[in-house]
Specification:
The chain has 14 helices and two strands, in the order αααααββααααααααα. With about 350 residues, the protein is mainly α.
């Protein structure tokens, strides 16, 4: 074997090992990130119980309701002791952790149902709302962002940027109220709230009709950040030398955009989606409340109002876990899309 053949074999083996080494690096990154999941969830859940103990709200008020004023102090004390309201927060937290480890999620005082049943009934509707809204936001942001980035400085680009800046300054509940006033009450195109019309079964047609407006509002509230990120990434990539070289060789601009500019610009876009995940969750809470959508957000608000710790703690750590896993998936996708990204952090 000649020296030239030996160098060629070495180069080929190095090229073959690069994807394998990249996968190992991503796997190590995932392992490092997952090591922090349990400690973070432990701290967050303990903080929820500690904060509830410092809250000025009396959970006995929400439990007794209108009977609170007519109940004597001795009965109040007996009920509070029976329900565990007089226990130190760390003891209540310990009982909750023990229940979680043994599969007993407890009973929700707010809904008078097992916590598992409350989540099973409401989670699918939240996932449907967030999934549809995110899909619409991503699709529209890609289409308009690519066009605006390729036509940077045009009248339509300036109009798109101005609308994005205005919309991103409006809270989701303001957009929701405006949509109800204009499109539901004013034009009558959509129902005002709820999952179905009063007394109707949740058929596909009913759900789609009632889902359209809240999903659109949630999508619009998240769209500015995604759209502007695509616009900036596309505009920056278009100024790169390899794009100028491809244009000089006479390659069609649509081919350059589809095969070179867009793939290079997708990695930052994926990261923005992961970073914005907490905002999407908060937006879903507000939108669900305004539109009376029977999702998990209403249960979160109700459990916080009533200090329903069995439900509140589980929903809180569930939200934190969703954010952590969403960010991890975004980082994995970023590392797969752009080999230059380091996986050591």
């Amino acid at each position: 074997m000649t020296a030239l053949d030996f160098r060629a074999d070495v180069s080929a083996s190095v090229v073959e090992d690069r994807p394998r080494a990249r996968r190992r690096g991503i796997a190590r990154m995932v392992e490092r990130r997952l090591l922090f999941v349990v400690p973070i969830l432990t701290v967050v859940s303990a903080a929820v119980f500690a904060a509830a103990a410092l809250s000025p709200f009396d959970p006995l008020v929400s439990y007794l309701g209108t009977r609170y004023m007519s109940t004597n102090e001795a009965d109040k004390a007996a009920i509070a002791d029976q329900l565990g309201f007089t226990q130190p927060w760390y003891q209540t937290y310990g009982n909750w952790v023990h229940g979680m480890l043994t599969g007993d999620l407890g009973i929700s005082r707010s809904f008078h149902q097992p916590v598992a049943q409350v989540i099973a009934e409401r989670m699918p509707w939240t996932l449907l709302l967030v999934g549809v809204a995110l899909l619409v936001a991503v699709a529209v942001s890609l289409l308009l962002g690519v066009w605006a980035g390729m036509h940077r400085g045009s009248v339509i680009d300036k109009l798109i940027s101005t609308v994005c800046i205005v919309v991103q300054g409006l809270p989701p509940f303001v957009l929701a109220l405006a949509a109800i006033a204009i499109l539901a009450l004013g034009a009558g195109w959509f129902p005002v709230a709820g999952l179905t019309d009063g007394g109707s079964d949740p058929t596909v047609g009913q759900v789609v009709r009632h889902l359209a407006l809240p999903a659109t509002v949630l999508a619009v509230s998240q769209m500015p950040w995604l759209l502007l990120a695509v616009r900036e990434s596309i505009a920056r990539t278009r100024r790169e030398d390899f794009v100028a070289g491809a244009c000089a060789r006479g390659i069609d601009i649509h081919t350059i955009t589809r095969r070179h500019i867009l793939p290079t610009s997708l990695a930052p876009f994926v990261t923005i989606i992961g970073v914005r995940l907490p905002e999407i969750i908060v937006g879903a809470v507000l939108v669900e409340e305004v539109f009376s959508w029977p999702g998990i957000a209403g249960a979160l608000v109700e459990s916080a109002r009533n200090l329903d710790m069995a439900l509140l703690a589980l929903l809180t750590i569930g939200t934190v876990l969703a954010v952590m896993l969403g960010n991890l998936l975004a980082d994995i996708a970023y590392a797969l899309l752009d080999p230059r990204v380091s996986t050591d952090g």
